[in-house]
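Consider one such protein record:
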Amino acid sequence: MTKEEIKQMLRDAEDMDEQIRSKEREIEAMKKLAQSLHSPQLDKAPGSKGFVTSYVDEAVSEYVNEERKLEQEKKALIRKKQMIYHIIETIPNLNYRRVLRYRYLEGYCWKDIADKFGCGVDNVFYLHRKAIESIAVKT
């Protein structure tokens, strides 16, 4: 991976938690909607040999398909976040790992990271750059 690809992957990690929570909210909304539906009495349609498919059956079927899709998207996001976590954890230097964890997994701003380290933001940028370089060398 290039340094730019690594940076983009890490930037993507910043938004993943919100994307996962969004998928969970969508799934919950779909469940509530499906639970609110009431199925009318099904009977044979004139001239047909089977039961009439109700709008509820169709809606529930669409709900199930959409829920599966959302669950798959959520799982893909979780897998990607786990992969990013694993990449960070394989960096030998503890301070490099800490900078990347604070920034991309925990969402700290640069100033807060500097405060945690007891140094200036420029030093944090240096550690960040070295962390990115250490990942680039491995890939």
